[in-house]
Amino acid sequence: MTRPFRLGTRRSALAMAQSQQVADALAAVAGRPVELVPIVSEGDVSRASLSQIGGTGVFATRLREALVAGECDLLVHSLKDLPTTQPEGLVIAAIPPREDARDVVVTRDGTPLHLMAPGARVGTGSPRRRAQVVRRNPRVELHDLRGNVDSRLQRVRDGQLDAVILAAAGLSRIGLDLGDLHLEPLGLAAWPTAPGQGALAIETTADAPVDLRAALARIDHLDTRLAVTAERTVLSALEAGCHAPLGVHAQLTDDDLRIGAVVYALDGSHRIGLDSAASFPREYGGTTGSGDGADAADDATPIAYAVRAGADVARRLLDSGAADLVPRESTP
């Protein structure tokens, strides 16, 4: 009997849901079963703020330890939570098609964020979202927010908070019945989100079995990989961590790779933003990627174009003074 591929995942409802989606897709193309292997990380058990325990990268560390130790064959990460420095011996073997990259405001009564009354309590643990909320409505009160999606929504239902800011993709993947709660989607042009938001990263070892690598390559989506590569290049070139107050969204449209990026002061008092359109050679493109981005070193590949486009945006942001706003990290 063929041994199942073992997919390591966090135990949260969102992680389990998105991992099961990947498991189903992988099983369909591989013709063999995929089983989930739940793994507990420090980020799951600590109640401290993410910035206090090392940023969102804490979720990836324990999972990667399990992968290297042979406890599982592959991992699924929310790409926005993944540090931009790739550990030696591990590869992002697939990035499936991206879901909705927007943030949403969740409320009881449907009041838009910009119309909320003075003192309205808005929950978010993200420095970027905090800065964006202040700019959208400086009259509200910000409250730090941890916990799973269910607990965050419950704080709105219970009246502890008037609103929370969440990722649209997470709500979609869990498939929760929101009942009488209201959603206000926030447009990406005015409210760009975290690099990679809405996308998943499937990680395995560089020496993973050929059949696993081949199956993962079949669920890799080149257009998504190109967009998130550009976004994450902006982040890494700014030498900022994945919890930096940076919003960036890239999208392939016709023959252009369009990137909108904004760097915020932590207190929301200032922003530096730009929109860029880089010509993209569609003759190199397609719908399926290399499976691990290993072709990035070739200057003529789609990945190389995305890297250059992202680096150019970062350079222009730095030239405009972004270094004074973004907390710098030596190992983003």
Write a structural description.
By secondary structure, the chain is α/β, with parallel strands linked by helices. The protein folds into 2 domains: 5-99 and 194-322, Periplasmic binding protein-like II (D-Maltodextrin-Binding Protein, domain 2), CATH 3.40.190; 103-186, Periplasmic binding protein-like II (D-Maltodextrin-Binding Protein, domain 2). It is built from 9 helices and 13 strands. The chain has helices at 13-30, 42-45, 58-68, 127-136, 149-157, 168-174, 210-218, 222-237, 302-319, and strands at residues 5-9, 34-38, 74-78, 90-94, 103-107, 121-123, 141-143, 163-167, 182-186, 200-205, 246-253, 256-264, 271-279. The protein has a 5-stranded mixed beta sheet with strand order 2-1-3-10-4, sandwiched between helices. A 5-stranded mixed beta sheet has the order 7-6-8-5-9, with helices on both faces. β11 (246-253) and β12 form a beta hairpin. The longest helix has 18 residues, at 13-30. The chain is globular and about 60 Å long.
